[in-house]
Amino acid sequence: MDYLPVGLKLSNQPVLLVGGGIVATRKARLLARAGADLHVLAPQVSDEIRGLVLDPDHIQLSPWDDRPLGEYAAVVAATPDQEVNAAISRGAKASMTPVNVVDDPSLCTFIIPAIIDRNPLIISVSSSGCSPVLARRIRSDIETRYPEGYGELARYLGSRRDEVSASLGSENERRYFWETLLGESEFINHVLHSNIAAANDVFQACLSGDGYSRGAVYLIGAGPGDPELMTFKALRLLQQADVVLYDRLIGDGILEMARRDADKIYVGKERSQHSMPQSEINENLAALAKSGKRVARLKGGDPFIFGRGGEEIEGLLAAGIDFEVVPGVTAASGAACYAGIPLTHRDHAQSVRFITGHTKNHRLDLPWNQFLNEHETLVFYMGLAGLGIIAKELVSAGRDPNTPIAIVEKATRGDQRVIAGTLSTIVKRAEEDSPAAPTLLIIGSVVTLHSSLRWFEPA
C-alpha cells in the first residue's frame, strides 16, 4: 500500500496552514474539528478561517517566508502557487514535520482521507491521492450504514471495557463476547435510540452467558420503487433482518439490499388474488419474532398510507412484540415527482387529497361531492381497476369532463410510464395503452405541467 493509515492526535498542538482561500478554509474546518491550535500564514484569509483560529496573533498576513517548520506538529499547504507548495514540502521534510500539500500527493508525507466522523468512531477512506472524488463517493455509501448514533455506541462500548476485562479472563473470551454483543442488532438499536436501560439488559445477558435472542419486527416503508429512495434507517434495519416479508410492490433492487442469508417470504396481494391473507401475515410476523427472528416487513411506499401498517402494529402489540416503523416516500410523492407533476402549485392547487380507489364487488362508495374543488389535486391509490367508475362518478358529481388526469405506471422505476388524458378520455387511453399495476391516478390541473416539468426519462 502507498500509505499506512494512521491517526494524528492534533488536539492543542500547533499546526501551520499556509493559504487563506476556499481550499484552505475547508482544511481549516477539518483541523479545527481535530482540536488543532491553528497558525495561518497567507496574504489574505477568509472570515471563516479568522473565526476558527483561537488566537488572533496566530494569523500572519504575509506570503510564504521559508520559515523553520520544526515547531509544528503538522503543516498543510493550500496555496495556488506550485513553487510555494514545493518549498513548503521541502522545508517540512527537512525538519521531519508531517506535511500535506493539497492536490499534490507527490509532495505529501501524509494525506487527508475522506472521513466519516462519528466521534470517537472515525472511519477514513483513501484512494492514496488517485481519486478523491471516488473516496468521497465510497464515504457516502458507508455513511448510509453508520448513522450519527454510532459515536454513542463506541462510547458505550468503551465505558464497559474494564467490566468485561474483569469478568472474562482470556483474550478469546473477550473477543467472543464483543462479537456476540455486536451481533445483537437490538442492542445496537437500543443504544442508537438512547434506550440505555434496555441496552444494559442485553449487555448483562451476553456477559453472563445466558445469551440473548429477542425478536423484533421492522415495518419498513420501501418507497415507490427506486431503491435509492430508501432512507438510511430503512436500509440499516433491512440489512439486520433475518427474515424479509415483501409484496409485489417491492422491486428486485430493494430485495438485493437485504442480507444474502436472510429468508425472503412473498406475501403479495394482487387484484382479486391474495397469496397470503392479512390475518395470516399478522400471525407470521408475531410467530417469527417470538422465535427470536428479526423480521423486516417491507411495504411499498409508506406503511401508514394505505399500507395496513396500523393493522399489523395492533397485532404486534397484542402479541407483546417489539417493533419499529420506518416511514417511506409514499407513492403519491414519488409518482408525482418523477412524472413532473407537482401535487401542489400556487397557480393550480393549494391542497392535495389521498383517496383509496380499491373497489369491492365492482363498486366504489366514496363521498364524490367532496371532490369538486378545482384547486385541489386528487390522488387515487389502487385506482386502475376502478378507473371507469372514478371518471364517471366525478363527472356525475359535477367535475368538468375536461379535467386533466394522469395514470402513472410503475412510478420511479426504469420502465415508468405516464398516460395523460381527461376524465372523458382516460378510459379509452387506458384501453389503448394497457397500463399494468402498480399505478397511481393524479387528477387536477397540475397534470398539465407534466410535459414541461418532467425530468425523469425512463430507460
User: Given this structure, which CATH class of the largest domain is correct?
Assistant: Alpha Beta
Order of strands, widest sheet: 3-2-1-4-5
Query: What structural category do the secondary elements indicate?
Result: alpha/beta
Mean pLDDT, as a whole number? 92
Low-confidence blocks of residues: none
Count the E strands. 19
Helix content class: 25-40%
- Which fold does the CATH topology of the largest domain refer to? Methyltransferase, Cobalt-precorrin-4 Transmethylase, Domain 2
Tell me what the structure shows.
- The chain has 4 domains: 14-112, Rossmann fold (3-Layer(aba) Sandwich), CATH 3.40.50.720; 150-207, Helicase, Ruva Protein, domain 3, CATH 1.10.8; 216-326, Cobalt-precorrin-4 Transmethylase, domain 1, CATH 3.40.1010; 332-453, Methyltransferase, Cobalt-precorrin-4 Transmethylase, Domain 2 (2-Layer Sandwich).
- The two termini are 40 Å apart.
- The model has no long low-confidence stretch (mean pLDDT 92).
- The chain is flat.
- The protein is of the alpha/beta class.
- Helix 12 packs across helix 13.
- The protein has helices spanning 22-33, 47-52, 82-94, 132-145, 150-159, 161-167, 171-182, 185-192, 196-207, 232-238, 252-255, 278-290, 309-319, 331-339, 387-397, 426-433, 450-453; strands at 14-18, 37-41, 59-60, 74-77, 99-101, 114-118, 121-125, 216-221, 243-246, 263-266, 269-270, 273-274, 294-299, 322-326, 351-356, 376-381, 404-409, 417-422, 439-443.
